[in-house]
Specification:
There is one protein chain. The mean pLDDT is 91. The protein is an alpha+beta fold and 96 residues long. Helix content is 28%, strand content 49%. It has a five-stranded antiparallel sheet with strand order 1-5-4-3-2.
Length: 96
């Protein structure tokens, strides 16, 4: 079993974070002080949202920015990689 800490810079609002955490878990998840706690088998996973200053593009477009951290413990390496792939899918945004 391993512990892993991952940090990501994301264009994401707090509401989008909460919606994506629920999509990842497959059910509603309580988010307290920007932190969500999930269990994956015997693993403990904490996902935290830290708001950063918004990014302004041009004169009109303002994008929310956040640092999202994941702390995984109790997963073997293959399970951790699989969880991170599910995280990426749940937090993926459409674009064009």
């Amino acid at each position: 079993m391993t512990s892993m800490h991952v940090e990501k810079l994301m264009t994401l609002s707090r509401a989008e974070f909460e919606k994506s955490v629920a999509a990842l878990a497959g059910h509603a998840v309580a988010v307290n002080d920007g932190r969500a706690h999930l269990r994956d088998g015997g693993a403990e996973i904490e996902i935290a949202y830290h708001a950063l200053p918004a990014k302004r593009l041009g004169g009109l477009l303002v994008l929310p920015q956040a640092r999202v951290t994941l702390d995984l413990s109790g997963l073997d390496e293959a399970a951790a990689v699989a969880f991170l792939q599910r995280f990426e899918l749940a937090f993926q945004r459409g674009g064009g």
